[in-house]
Amino acid sequence: SGPALPRRAAADIPVIAHRGASEDVPEHTLAAYEAALFQGADGLECDVRLTADMHLVCVHDRRVNRTSNGRGVVSTLELAQLRQLDFGSWKQPPGDSEYVEVPDLRREGAHRVLTLERLLELVVDHPRRVEMAIETKHPTRYAGLVEEHLVALLDRFGLAHPRLGERSPVRVMSFSAMSVRRIRRLAPSLETVLLLDRVPLRFRDGSLPRGARIAGPGIHILRTHPEYVARAHSMGNRVHVWTVDQASDIDLCVELGVDAIISNRPQAVLARLGRG
Ligand code: G3P
Ligand code: CA
């Protein structure tokens, strides 16, 4: 563990758009990420999987069935096959009950499968510094291939090995401690987040496995164990929380002084933090 960290002030909590502005726009599409940046999100979260021909694509589920008009397992499909699918038409456009800002998203390609490469182009071309929280999904399947391809791709953008004294805007997250370790081995100066859907007994004191410095608990953990944030801070570890959409949960994160809020509704969170 490192020196204790202070509780973060509301105005300094980065707001990370979970799968893009995914409450309003189909998740993991270019349109969802453009909308999030348009709304002022500080960063973007995405899940990555390898296709059969070894391209990293931004898809949450193992299958494309829920979020596209196709069927099948991502890892058995080639990128060209995924490109035939429509990843937008499953979702209703945002209603007008609550005002949200979304740019014109109907243009060609905005709802096609999104490669991580295209998403990184969006990020590096953006006039603001944009944080990226990239989650490796089911990394055991490929025994390290996801991490190797990910670090190689980040390297092409100059994002995997920041120079001394610099910090990459990218961090890699996983529920798999093994995946996090692989990333640290391949790219030692890249930040990593160990995602937690429950806190194992040995980490209840706020500690993390050796080398890890950021915990990624679900908001459900903080509802019942709000003391976890102060404990992690006392160990010198930061806390990035998912998926924070309700007003009461946003307020809890502010009260606890978490280090990042990951939300499907970045605009609503920014407004609640007084940055809208
Ligand atoms: O940001 C972490 C969160 O995305 C983990 O859950 O299932 O939405 O990927 P999931
Ligand atoms: Ca995720």
Radius of gyration: 18 Å
CATH superfamily: Phosphatidylinositol (PI) phosphodiesterase
> What average pLDDT do the residues reach?
93
Q: Percent of residues in helical segments?
A: 25-40%
Q: Which class best fits the helix and strand makeup?
A: alpha/beta
> In total, how many beta strands?
9
Structural domain count: 1
Bound molecules: SN-glycerol-3-phosphate, calcium ion
**Which CATH C-level class is it?**
Alpha Beta
CATH fold name: TIM Barrel
Q: Regions with pLDDT < 50 over 5+ consecutive residues?
A: none
| Approximate strand percentage | 15-25%
The side-by-side strand order for the widest beta sheet comes to 1-2-4-5-6-7-8-9
- The run of helices and strands is EHEEHHEHEHEEHHEHEH
List the total number of helices. Answer: 9
- What's the architecture, going by CATH? Alpha-Beta Barrel
Largest sheet: 8 strands, parallel, barrel
Distance between the termini: 35 Å
Q: How would the global form be characterised?
A: globular
Protein name: Glycerophosphodiester phosphodiesterase
Organism: Catenulispora subtropica
Characteristic terms for this protein:
binds calcium ion; alpha/beta; binds SN-glycerol-3-phosphate; 276 residues; 28% helix; globular; 9 strands; TIM Barrel; 16% strand
Explain this structure to me?
The chain is an alpha/beta fold and 276 residues long. The protein has one domain: Phosphatidylinositol (PI) phosphodiesterase (TIM Barrel). Helices cover 28% and strands 16% of the residues. It is built from 9 helices and 9 strands. The protein has an 8-stranded parallel β-barrel, surrounded by 6 helices. The chain starts with 14 loop residues before the first strand and ends with a helix. Calcium ion is lined by residues 45, 47, 135.
